[in-house]
Structures are given as C-alpha cells and as structure tokens.
Hints:
Layout: H1 6-20, E1 29-31, E2 41-44, E3 52-54, E4 61-64, E5 73-76, E6 92-95, E7 101-106, E8 113-121, E9 135-140, E10 143-149, E11 157-165, E12 170-179, E13 183-184, E14 186-192, E15 204-214, E16 232-234, E17 240-243, H2 260-263, E18 265-268, E19 276-282, E20 292-298, E21 311-316, E22 319-320, E23 326-327, E24 334-338, E25 347-354, E26 363-364, E27 366-374, H3 382-395, E28 416-419, E29 427-432, E30 439-440, E31 454-456, E32 461-464, E33 478-480, E34 485-489, H4 492-499, E35 504-506, E36 512-514, H5 528-560, E37 587-588, H6 591-597, E38 604-607, E39 611-617, E40 623-629, H7 637-649, E41 658-664, E42 667-673, H8 680-685, H9 696-716, E43 721-722, E44 731-733, E45 739-741, E46 748-749, E47 758-759, H10 772-777, E48 779-780, H11 782-798, H12 812-820, H13 839-852, H14 863-878, E49 887-890, E50 906-910, E51 915-919, E52 928-934
Helix pairs in contact: 9-11, 9-14, 11-13, 13-14
EC number: 2.7.11.1
Keywords: ATP-binding, Kinase, Leucine-rich repeat, Membrane, Nucleotide-binding, Phosphoprotein, Receptor, Repeat, Serine/threonine-protein kinase, Signal, Transferase, Transmembrane, Transmembrane helix
Protein name: non-specific serine/threonine protein kinase
Amino acid sequence: MEAPTPRSRDMTARWLFLFLLGVAGSAVLQVHGQADSLGFISIDCGLPGKTGYIDSTTKLSYATDAGFTNTGTNHNISAEYVTPTTGKIWRSVRSFPDGLRNCYTLRSLVPGLKYLIRALFKHGNYDGRLNRWPIFDIHIGVNYWQTVNITDGDMPVIAEIITVISGDSVQVCLVNTGSGTPFISSLELRPLKNKLYPQSDMSQALVLATRANVGASANLRYPDDPHDRIWISLNVPSWMAISTTKEVQNSVIDFFEVPSTVTQTGVTSINSSTPIIFFWDVTSAKDSMPGYVFMLYMAELQHLPSNALRQFYVKLNDKPWDTKPRGLKYLETTVLYNEKPDYASQQYIFSLEATTNSTLPPILNALEIFSVVPTTGLATTTHEISAMTTIRDMYQMKKNWMGDPCAPKNFAWNGLHCGYAVSRPPTITGLNLSSSGLSGNISSSFASLKGLQYLDLSGNNLMGSIPDTLSQLSSLTLLDLTGNQLSGSIPSGLLKRTQDDSLTLRYGNNPNLCSNGNSCQPPKKKPRSMVVVHIVVPIFVVLIIVLLSILLLCMRKRRQGTTTNSVRPQNESIDNYGHTSLRLESRRFTYSELEVITNGFQRVVGRGGFGKVYDGFLEDGTQVAVKLRSESSNQGVQEFLAEAQSLAKIHHKNLVSMFGYCKEREYMVLVYEYMSEGALDEHLRGKDNNTRTLSWRQRLLIALESAQGLEYLHKGCNPPLIHRDVKTSNILLNTNLEAKIADFGLLKAFNNDSDTHVSTARVVGTPVYVDPEYYATFQLTSKSDVFSFGVVLLEIVTGQPPIPNDPEPTSIIQWARQRLARGNIEAVVDIHMHGDHDVNSVWKVADTALKCTAQAPEQRPTMTDVVALLHECLELEDARNHMNARFYTAGSDTNLNNYSQYDTGMSTDVSQSRTALEAEHFDRVPRMSDGPAVR
C-alpha cells in the first residue's frame, strides 16, 4: 500500500473514527426509552421525532433528545459531509442559538456513583456558515468541564469526563462564550464501579486527553470494553507490533479494568538500544496549566526463555518516573500511574528505555492520559431546584432558566438573587418576577423556598387566592402582589406578620382582594379632625426638637470657647483626617432599618471580639455583613467610630468596603461588604469538613493581596495608618478567593507623615501577633504590622494555628524557626497541600516570614519590600516545571508514555531521522496544543 499523502491520511483517520462510532445507518431498529439494562444512556442529539434506534455495531439503544432538553433547534449536517460510512449519530445536531446556558438533564442515576460521560460534536456545516467554526464551553453540573474548539466541519470532537455524581440526576450544559453557537451531536453516559479511576472523587474529575490501544489494528469499544471506553488504535512503522490470542489477566488489585482485548496487542521498539518516546507541547494559558494523571498498561505477551530479559526504565522529562527498572509477568497486566496530578511547564516527554542488562526492548500495550478539573462547586439544594423547576414549568417561563438556579454565580437565573455562604450550598433569597406574564394561581412551590427574603410578583395576571403557606416563610420580609387579579381574603398569617412589622406586604390594584377577613369594602376614611391631629402633632414635636438642639449647640460653643485644642464629646470624636464622626462619607442606618435588612438579626455568619456578624440584604438585594457590637465587647465608642471613619475614608481593592453604620442609643453597628468565603483562618485550618484546601498558588495570591492592603495603609494614606490587629481571622475572602483586610477598630494614625512611631497608653492587639517591641515600649510603628503579617505568612505556609500544640503549646514563630533551622522545609509545610508546590517559592515565603518576625524592628522589611518578595514567590510558583508525584504499581511492573487521544485526524509522519505521530487533540483538552509525537 502506498504511503498516504497528508490529505489521504486525514481521510483515513476520519474513516477509522467514524467506523468506530457506528457506520451503518440502515441496519437500525426502532426502540423507545432512555436507558438500557446496563444503565447506559445514549442520546442522538437533533434526531427528529420521538423514536430512537439500536446501533447495529454496538447493539446499544440510542434515544432522541426530546426527553432530555426543551430548548434548541434540530438540524441535519450538510450533504457534502455525509458518506456511506458516516455513523448515524453524526448526521444530526441540536444547536442552541438562544441563551447563555442550555442543558441536558440525565436522570435515574445512583447518588454517589462514578460515571463516564461523553459528549460528541461534528459541525458538518449544519448552519451553512462555512469556515465560521464555534468555540464554547461545556459544564458538568455547576462545574467547568472543558472548552470545545471546532476547527473543521468534518472533524469530530469528543469530550469525555469521569466524575462522581452526588445526586440522582446530572446536567450537561453547553455555555455560549461569545465565539459562536453551541451545538452537540450525541451524549452518552456509562456507570462505572466506584473503585475505578481512584483519582476521580467528589472533589475532582478526570477529563480524557488520550486513550490509545497500542499495536492494535482497529479501534475498540463496547462490547469488547464492558464500560464502553473508546480505545483508539495507535501504530507507528518504526515500532514492532506483537500480539497474542491468549487471555491477559489483570492484577488482583485492579483500579482500571483494561480489557484483555486491549492488552493482547502491544509494541516494542526495534531493539533494546532504542527507546519508545512520546511527547507533546502544552500551549501557554492565562490560567495555571492543568494537572495530568497517566496510566500506562504493559503486559508480557511472549513466553521468554531463561536467557532472555525484558527490563526497562520509564522517564518523564529525562527524570525517572519510577524508582526502579521493571520486569513484566507473562500474560499479566501491569499498570503504572500517578495518584495525584503532575505538572510540566511547556512539554511532556516520556521515554521507555531498556536497562543495560536487558536483552529485549521495552514494551507498551495501552495508555490513558487525563487532565484534572475541580468539582468543588456547590449546587443549589435539591428541594429549591425542584421548586424552581416546578415554578418555571407551571408559568412556562421564557427567561431561559436552565441549569442550576444559583450556580455558578455568574450564571444565576434572571430575576433570582442568591445567598452564598462559606462551604454551604447557595440559597435563593430573592425572586423578582414582576411583569413576567405570569397567569393562573400563585404556585405553592414558592413556599418551598425557605430562605426567601423578598418575592415580587407584581404586574402579572395572577388569579385566585393568596396561599397561606407564604406566611410560613420566616425569612420573608417583602411580598409584592400589586397589579394582579387576586381574589379572596389576605391570609391571617400574613396580616399578623404585617402587624408585627416582620413583613412588608403590597397588594394594591387587586380589585377583588379583601384586605381583611370580613369584608371586601374599602376602609372608611378617618375623620377630618383626626387627619389634622396626625399632621399638626408631628410638626410641633419636630419644632421642639429643633429648638432644643439649637439651645444645646449654643451652650456647647460657649463652654468650648475659641480654643483650637477643643475637646469633643465621645460620641462626636474627631478622626485623624480632621472630620467628626457626624460627617461620615457613608450611609447612616437606623436600627429599625437594620432589623429589616437582617430579618431581625436572624442569621449569624461570624463572631469576634466586637460582637456578632449577621447576614443581611439591602433594598436592592445587595448582600451585606452587619457587625453588631455586643455589650461584652471591649471596643468602646471611640474605637467603633474610628473603624467607621476609617472604612468610610479609605478605599482599596484589598480592604473591605463599608456601606454604612448605625450609632443609635446603645447600638453600634457597621454594615460592610459581604465576603462569602469567610476568613482565611477557616480555610487554613478548616471551619468544617467541607472547607476546601487552598493550593499553594491560592495561598500566595491571598498573601500578596493582603500585603498590598497593608502597604496601602502604610504608604498610600496621608497620614499613614497602622492596622494594629493583623491576623488570619481579619483577612476575609470573597467568592473568587480575593483577600481583603478587615476589622479596623484598632487602626491608629501617625500625627503627621514624617513621624516614625505613635505612642499608645496601652498595648492592644492579639497575643502572638503583637510586636514584642510594642509590648516593651508602647511605641507603635508600621513595623508592628509587618511583625503581625510575618505570623500570618507562617500560618499560610504551615497551616498551623498561631500557637501550635506540637508537642507543647508554643508560638508559631518559635515552632517554625526550630524546624527551619534543620534545613527541611517539608517539616513545616502544610501537609494538606500534598507537596504540590515549588520548593524555592515556599522557602522564600518562609524566609520572608522569619524576617518579618525579627525581634528588632529595624531588621524587618517594609510592607513594600514584602509585596515585592511575594511577587517573586508567585513567579517561582508559576514557573514551576515539574511536580514530584508519588507513583503506584498494580501487578508486577509499571511504565508510562504520552500521546494524544480521541482524534479523527491522527496523521502519521514518517522521516529518516525520526518517526513522529502528530495528533491534533480530538477532545480539545484546554491549553493543549496539536498533540504528541512519538519516536
């Protein structure tokens, strides 16, 4: 056979892949249903009608997508892309020109089970817009799966993920990213045993990059593989193919269950002095490069004589990937894999190299490569999703309500407002359906939204009575029913709540609605005399108050005289900017307003020395944190006003912003931006079992952002400010884990810009974090904040509390210095990072922390110095070329290689000097280039 030209190579590869996925379109049987007895779900997307078929090659039943999604448009691909070998699933597509996110719902799943989910795409110029290929994302539930990049109308793309499904259903969503209309050809789901692919768990999923059946003559899937994994045949002319008809056994401890039909074939290099090499380039990306896990399958297929030896090393980027050379057992599969992700900078190169004693070349039978994606996004609770789905279907909403109602946050449904608490599922707190064309009765499902704080159903055509169940929504503070056709009486439960001011009820412009339980007649007008009384009395009271205020002001001015060193009363102290507390540049709330905002101070989201912090919502739905001073608080009026003034005057992206304050009678309250991910200490040590472990890069960014906030206080304010209470519990994180300094109750300013220190009457702050020089001299400097921040850095590196109990309670500074003095950074690094860090970067942060906590202030760096050092640490981490991973073997031996996967365009490029197989990644793993080569 002649060597194929590049074009013929492409066509050959496409033919092979289309043959793999079912070529016969005529030999099909009509079937109905969504899943077969194996638990498989197979959907032919865009197939017209409601009747499916049985694929003649795999004997698997395929259903139409009518029961899985209710949006999108069916299309057939252009005739020029259809040949007699084109599989039936490729001939139609469903596209989604409307909406940001459109989803398929796969039901009847087993909660907690692991599944393989596969999405297939072939454009086929279905829309007649030749050479305008789309790029879009796909999500699994609320988590990003991968980006689909269509580059050719005839080139199929497959996205495959192995993930644990927590509920009895899962949604696969196509997300429009602004680069073309999403579409899909087929969607498949296959259940897996939970022991398989242990790298996939509740926190992360595996996205397929490569699955190769090395040395095989044809592609392979179900029924040869009972899990219906698709194994692409891979051959290179310079390799020697070997095979056996005997069954190849897997090891007793088997985490992958590779079929015997896969491992019955393999390849060796031409001789023992020639290695087998796989390599590919990783394209640069804005985000950090994904981690990869590898599975290399090897089995000895030849019964070797006593004088023969097959033994070889496996190397990754010229470094040993395993600790010792391996020999294989006859007809038994050995698997080499890494338990946690591996990272490389620009290129992966895997080589199998025979040892000097080996008489035979290395062997390779099959290989899989996956990238790792996090699946830690929290979905809305099941009962709220069910309620919103019922509401959507009942009113036939046209708002493109698809996917999870609240998550991800930037995909929340139109008209919904959700609350996002740390490590808890999002909750629907507000629902605005005003003027949405609703008709019929008020759905009873609204009462299932237990966290609902406001519900606006105004301007619709709702009829019938108001459900009494709405009064059971204890968090509801606003219910707007104006402008409908409601009838009957207002339920007594709602009337009672309006009377005790726990609910604002609006119900005007409902002609047939009774405002009380006895009569629908409008209330009688009050006597004219009573109206006059209601007008005159408040005016008289206001005049009396104004006169008394003027009198008191005159008396105060006379007492103070004209001296410039005037002393103001405690509730009107002058701040360091020359402004009084009565002239804050932020909103002054009344206590009654705060009761409405917090729903009666119902939900506590934090506690501190000042008091409790409550969750609240402003009138426009903005979520806020409301900090109420407790009676036992050590913070006095002066400190409260200092914090209020500071938050009102200083503005920086890494300092929390204040919306307003309240100083009314004994109540002192601050209202500031809500930081959904809580305090840093909760993430370092875990507030509960659901708290996510921060990666080293995330910790570096948090440290850098916090340092920038402090640097602004020291250098960007005039006069400079000292925080005085820097600690991990005062570093708050938002949804994106961006850090902001909080708690300014102890803030202190220099008298002028040239001062070097400020004297205080007493030492304030938190033990361990407080500068020892400040303890001794009562003289506060910017280096006092530097000392405290050094303690924060040690906590970030170690994950330890400020006073570790290891083995006896001691300062974290002393604890770290003792261990670092031995030169072993791993002795102090947080074990929860599992070694996933650049060692030099960690050393540099630890060294910076020790410099910050030096006994003498003059030996400590400035915050500007610290910011520069942390930038360098982040650059080191980003430039990391290799990640030390632990490797495990199953069977008698192990090995690995690299090659691209799922590709219809696998082209074989043979040259005199090097044999290379360059394969464009068929599944378009994000940030991967044209794929690997082998030699």
